[in-house]
Amino acid sequence: WSPDGKRIAFVSAPSPKTDHLMFSATIQVVDVETQEIRKLTAADGGENSPRWSPDGKWIAFLYRTDDANRLQKDIYTVPSEGGAPANLTSDFDHNEIALIWSPAGDIIYFEAADRVRRHFYAVPKNGGEIRQITHGDCVTSDMSIASDGNKYLCRREAPDTPADLCVGSIRTGELKQITKLNPQLADFAQSKTRVIRDRKSVV
After folding, report:
1. What is the sign of the dihedral through the CA atoms of 140, 141, 142 and 147?
2. Which residues make Cβ contacts (< 8 Å) with residue 15, sequence separation at least 6?
3. How does pLDDT run across 164-203, given as a tens digit for each residue?
4. Which of 11, 103, 139, 142 could join 155 in a cystine, given CB atoms 3.0 to 4.6 angstroms apart?
5. Cα(191)–Cα(197) distance, rounded to whole angstroms?
6. How far apart are CA 166 and CA 137, in angstroms?
7. How far apart are CA 97 and CA 99, in angstroms?
């Protein structure tokens, strides 16, 4: 939904086939009152995850730009009324997912996988330096930004630690665990993990 409740941005694909959903989907915008539908951009596919800015003037979305790597997507913004999309992460070599606008509408937060890890990042709405917020040998996901724009909630898990909820600082990335969802594991040693690398992939 747009913030004013008058429009809805959605993803449309030619058919339910997996390839169409992944590579041929486009973002459409429908006016709730008139039921008029229009394409958000001129792209012929590869779009998903539309997110309205808090003021309703912009839509951030993910778009596939590299035919050689069809799963790699970049973050774009475009005026919600239409216009030329701007790529905010063209030099970022990880696959971005889970876009969230800051309450002030000046920052877009996102998750990105780095081999066997996943972390949170931030990029200015108009482009610029990408800042990594969380660090360490862990997977952080399901991010939610507090209304003051200074704190976030996430789920964090590590090779030797089961998933729990944590609250963190946007400025420093420092995390504080606020739940113990698996207390029964406290008396057990967790299994060890290690990354196995070869020339083609990471397992």
Report:
1. positive
2. none
3. 999 999 998 889 999 988 777 777 666 666 667 666 655 4
4. 142
5. 19
6. 15
7. 6
